[in-house]
Amino acid sequence: MSNLSAQTTVPTTTSTTIVLPVSKAVLWLVGTAVLALLAYYFIGVDQGAYSIFGKDMHIHEFVHDARHFLGFPCH
Fold it and tell me: Structure pTM?
C-alpha cells in the first residue's frame, strides 16, 4: 500500500511583477483619453450645428439609441 497522502502538495500562487515603462504608460493613457473624448463627442455632443460634418445628422442618428441609453438629452 502506497502512501499517497504524504505526496500531495498544496498548489502555491506566485505573483508576477509587470514592468511597464513610463513612456508606454503615457502613450496608453493619452491614446485611451483621446478615444474616450472622441466617443464622448460623437455620442454626446455631435448634433446639428455642433456637428463636425456640418448640419448633418448621420452621426447623431447612428448613435441615437446609445445617446438615450447614456442619458444625454436629444430632442
Answer: 0.59
Q: What angle do CA 68, 72, 75 make, to 5 degrees?
A: 75
pLDDT means over runs of 10, the chain (75 residues) = 64 84 94 94 76 76 85 78
Residue 22 cell numbers, joined: 513610463
> Dihedral through CA 64, CA 70, CA 73, CA 75, nearest 10?
30
Q: How many residues does the chain have?
A: 75
Cβ neighbors of 43 (< 8 A, separation 6 or more) are: 63, 66, 67, 70, 72
Q: Distance of alpha carbon 57 from its chain centroid, rounded? A: 25
